[in-house]
Amino acid sequence: MRYWLFKSEPSTWGWSDQVARGAAGEEWDGVRNYQARNHMREMKLGDLGFFYHSQKDKEIVGIVEICAEAHPDSSTDDNRWECVDIKAVRPMVKPVSLAMCKSDPRLADMVLVHNTRLSVQPVTPQEWHVICQLGDTLA
DNA sequence: GCCAACGTTGGC
DNA sequence: GCCAACGTTGGC
Predict the structure, then answer these.
(1) Which band of pLDDT confidence, cut at 50, 70 and 90, is reported for residue A94?
(2) Closest Cα to residue A51, out of A23, A87, A99?
(3) A26 lies in a domain?
(4) Which of A49, A56, A101, A133 has minimal Cβ neighbours within 10 Å of its Cβ?
(5) Which of A25, A2, A23, A24 is CA-nearest to residue A120?
(6) Which residue's CA is nearest to the C1' of nucleotide B6?
(7) In this structure, what CATH number is given to the domain that contains residue A33?
């Protein structure tokens, strides 16, 4: 089991949109970055991820689960691009802000802290548990 | 709104 | 194959 982080601008696709899809989940489409795509190719059914709001909020707001492994991105005919499907599992009891991540020494090496532009990122198990604690949320 | 970081494109 | 120019993202 591995852990991930999905970044989205809430005005485009936010946590409430994700929750509205329910158990059916939704394609994480539109990614046009090789690093991000490669991470999605590594994802397995049942892997968990954080859902992060970029721009205005800058905080981790929920937990999602991979409900379909990598497949062609239906938003393009270009077969280079693939995506996974994710479904909402539960919200963070308390959102964990970027500022909190930056100020916690245990999260100093987190990709989110230091490669702000990558939209799909790996999260280590240690980082996963620290953030769940900060968010008062069940890992 | 600005700017730094990063990825991509295209000329050579 | 290198590198300058350009576009995009996202934090501040």
Answers:
(1) very high
(2) A87
(3) yes
(4) A56
(5) A2
(6) A117
(7) 3.10.590.10
